[in-house]
Amino acid sequence: SQEDAYDGHCKCATCQAIVASEDGESGPVIDFINAIAAGIEKDYPDILVQTFAYNLTQKPPKTLRPRRNVIVRWCDGYDNGITTSDLVRPLSHPANAAHGEQIKEWGRIASHLAVWDYWITFGYYLFPTPYCMIQCIAPDLRLFAEANVATVFCESEEEHEPGENFTALKYWLGYQLMVNPYQPVEPLVQTFMAGYFGAAAPRMDEYLKYLQ
Q1: What is the model's pLDDT at position 207?
Q2: DSSP secondary structure string, 149-172?
Q3: Predicted TM-score of the model (pTM)
């Protein structure tokens, strides 16, 4: 895998020649991980080897393809501590569309695709906010399903959640939509509101829509 640092990549002539031919830093990473996976496969054909499409390597290589025993895990990058996606808008939104297309492109070339998703607003908003990414869950999970994403990891640490509203709804709705991302969302939200907030559900629903 690779570090969080943007500049943490090999700059030798051999690696940079692959960068030039593959139009990006994902070229040397896939070339390297393929060699590792080929060696492991001889003795352990059932083992999968994972690497990241992250920061400099988010963009897929031009011609290289991950081996069938390689998992590529796409993750939103960041610049100077700020995520490069707007985390309260879906990946289909114009602000994030380039990242949505990257996931689709990886889905076309990788036998195994995973996503490390951010279900928090850290980085992009540098102070506690009431916003939650409820409106992103369904469209993003549908995009992942259609891009042949096999596994999803959702980063959502408690220390980033103070100030955030509807955290419990986020987890509950996310679980329901991971079972079936094509369910209608609004009936699920209303089921949660009624069960969680009781008589206050109509006013809390108004507040959620106001935040969104």
Answers
A1: 97
A2: EEEEEEE--GGG-TT-S-HHHHHH
A3: 0.91
